[in-house]
Amino acid sequence: MFIKMNFSQFFSYIQEAPWYEKFLSPVIKEVTTNDKVLDIGTGSGKLLELLHNKTNSVNTGIDTNNSMLQEAQIKLHKIKVDLVQIEPNKNLPLKNSSFHIISICNVLFNLNEKSVYKILNESIRIIKKGGKIIILSPTGKGGILKLTAKFFSIKNLGIYIWYFATKNRAAEWTNNLILKEYCRKNNLKYNRKFTLNGFAQLETIKV
Ligand SMILES: C[S@@+](CC[C@H](N)C(=O)[O-])C[C@H]1O[C@@H](n2cnc3c(N)ncnc32)[C@H](O)[C@@H]1O
Asked: The whole model's pTM is what?
C-alpha cells in the first residue's frame, strides 16, 4: 500500500492518526465562529477539515506544492474552502487586512530565513488589526522514551517519523527564537507555549 503512495498521499495518510489531531488542536482553540482563517502551507488540508467541522470559520488554504493541494482537494471535496497555489518568496495574492487568523503549522521551522521573513511580512500585511498569527512547530525536544510513553499505539506510528524527520531543524527553531526577535524589532506582541506534551510549540503574534 505505502509503496504506491507519493509523498503527499503518505503525508495525508499520516495526518489521519489521532496524534495529529491532538497536535493541531491548540490552533483550533484559537479560532471562533465566522473568523476568516488563512492557513499558510496547508499541505493536504487536515487543519482546514478540522476547522470546518469544529468552528464554522471561513477558510482559505495556500501552499507552494501542487501535489499537496491535490491531496487537500480530495480530503476537502465536500467542504467549502478556497485552495490557492502560491509561489515561494513572492507577495501573496491576498488583500491587505483580510483575515482574523493566520495559521502556519509545521512549516516555518523548516524554511530558510529569507522565506520565513517573507511569510511573516506578508502575514502582517494581510492580517486584520486585532488578529492573530499562530505558528505551530515541533520542538525537537522530548526523546523516544517519552514519545513512546505518551503516544504509543498502532494508529500513532507516524509520530515517530514526524519526530525524527523534524528533530534537528525543530530544535534549532526552538533555541533560536526567531519569531520573538522578529516581534521585538517590529513592536508586536509575542507569546509561546509548549503543547503535545512538550513535543510541539504554539507561538502567537498579536497584531
Ligand atoms: C510539513 S507540511 C505541513 C502541512 C500542514 N500545515 C500540516 O501541519 O499538516 C509543510 C507544507 O508547507 C508547504 N510550504 C513550504 N514552503 C512554503 C512557502 N514558502 N509558502 C507556503 N507553503 C510552503 C509545503 O509545500 C508543505 O505542504
From this structure: 0.96
